[in-house]
Amino acid sequence: MLRADDGSQAMEFAMVLPLVAMLVVGLVAVGGVAASSLRTHALAVELARAASVDHDRVVVERVADRPWLDVTVDPPSGVRQPGDPVTVRVATTVSVPILSGVRLPLSATATTITEDVP
């Protein structure tokens, strides 16, 4: 004997599955962008540390093999004195995983104190 609700669980599952799949794909995309943002910030911190103890040329050489990065150091090494702040800004764009063709701008800034006159 068939009841009126036979197969309703399968139908509910079929309706919810695409939503769950889209949620998972969205989380993967957001996670990829977040990881790229963290890597960009870590690079800015590393380059700020390098700029605080060395000449700007060294900072630029560290990222010379990455033409997609835009790195600025302020103030330039000829102007800084020990104890002055030095700020490094890293800007790039990142493609969103799953969504081909979508690129988001990312930037990170790190400031530290000049330890040596470069």
What would you note in describing this structure?
This protein is an alpha+beta fold and 118 residues long. The chain contains two helices and three strands, in the order H-H-E-E-E. The protein has a three-stranded antiparallel β-sheet with strand order 1-2-3. Strand 2 and strand 3 (103-113) form a beta hairpin. Helix 1 packs antiparallel against helix 2 (56-62).
State the main characteristics.
118 residues; three-stranded antiparallel sheet; 2 helices
Indicate the overall shape: rod-shaped
Proportion in helices:
40-55%
As a percent range, the share of strand residues is 15-25%
The count of strands amounts to 3
Number of helices: 2
